[in-house]
Structure to design on (203 residues):
């Protein structure tokens, strides 16, 4: 199994543990069995009586990971204006943790990016929208999954020859209600009342 394939497998397994309510993954509130928590740098700094600058690394202004006993705390920079960039940065750091990286070399960065792509744009879900004509270009991935154009342009060509695994087919079933809602709009259950019944047909 290649590093990219392993990253995708780990992302799929993590998604299978979630309560799927939307096609758009929320990387800030994933169920990681209490081993990964996400907070903003600004809020955490306020809670511990520190300054946000104390946690911002010189080489990265997006995210920082604090490792504690049995816990990884991912702190993202709330001042970043782009929502898609914040989402990607958090998903990328979750990828480093799930892939158990102990350094940030080029190979590790590539694998963490592959994980983030699979987490935020599950291929089996994106392919479903592609087959139904809901996706026609990379820009559609941006709107649907809340990712940047760069992430969408990387992902879109990969969907054309993609074949899902059995585990991904299982994930698709979990996403099915959210996919149908996205395609057709929410299903509204109207309360039963006799006034909603059709009048008797008189012949």
């Amino acid at each position: 199994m290649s590093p990219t394939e392993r990253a995708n497998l780990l992302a799929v397994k993590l998604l299978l543990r979630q309560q799927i309510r939307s096609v758009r993954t929320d990387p800030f509130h994933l169920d990681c069995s209490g081993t990964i928590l996400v907070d903003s740098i600004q809020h955490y700094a306020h809670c511990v009586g520190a300054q946000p600058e104390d946690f911002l690394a010189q080489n990265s202004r997006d995210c920082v990971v604090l490792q504690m006993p049995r816990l990884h705390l991912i702190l993202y920079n709330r001042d970043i204006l782009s929502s898609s960039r914040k989402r990607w940065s958090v998903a990328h750091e979750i990828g480093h943790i799930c892939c158990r990286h102990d350094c940030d070399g080029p190979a590790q960065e590539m694998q963490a990016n592959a994980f983030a792509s699979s987490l935020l744009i599950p291929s089996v879900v994106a392919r479903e929208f592609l087959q139904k004509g809901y996706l026609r270009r990379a820009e559609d991935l941006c709107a649907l999954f809340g990712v940047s154009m760069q992430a969408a342009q990387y992902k879109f060509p990969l969907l054309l020859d993609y074949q899902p695994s059995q585990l991904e087919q299982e994930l698709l079933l979990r996403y099915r209600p959210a996919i149908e809602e996205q395609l057709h709009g929410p299903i509204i259950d109207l309360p039963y009342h006799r006034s909603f019944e059709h009048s008797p047909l008189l012949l």
